[in-house]
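Bug #77: duplicate submission created two jobs. Keeping one. Sequence:
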Amino acid sequence: MQGPRISLNKLGEYMTAATPSRRKRIVSDQQSPQAFIAARYKDAREAIVEFMVSGMSDHRELLSAASRLRNTHEGSDFAISDRNASADAIESFIEVVNSINFGDCVAVSMPCTASQGMTVAGVYVSVRPDIYLRNWVTGEIEGAVKLHFPKTSPLTSPGAEYVATAMRVYMEREKGYSHVDYRKCYVVDVPTSSVTVAPKAHVRKMKDIEAACEEIAIRWGNGSAAA
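Kept job's structure:
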């Protein structure tokens, strides 16, 4: 059996899950991920990332992308439903654009690598920022943006803070970026049009994350999926 692992956004949800049964279900879903769920919102993610990388200056491109998705009726019912969901997500993102300020940084996408995560208390956390923020003068990476899409499991503000904190620590410890600014570590919960940045103080939150990962590792080893 594959070792314990969890995506960063799901870890944020786990941190603030209201009930033990919901936490158990999150681990179970990570043990047996559904490919069609992982593929959802691909069109929205690509359109939003391209918009950020191109400077976030022309909302019309996003609106056009949403319109094209809604007007494409080819493929399975799932494909059509997913395109409509991506169109909704793009429009929700437009509502929050003015809350994102890259300052003296530009958005850059990084090539996918085999590992874009870190191990916390025996659990591999897949971080995968959607974009990085590079200072256009110094060339240093100073931040990143992580997008979250599912309407059925939006990130709460505390959950998003945990995600932003872990992303900051990942960039500092795993990537070795020495100029990371916590104020430029953004988490965007798209369906609720909310933007959260990493808190300045992060030691206590990382201890909370470590404790949660210890719990996840125990659930994983005990066969949570079969429970």
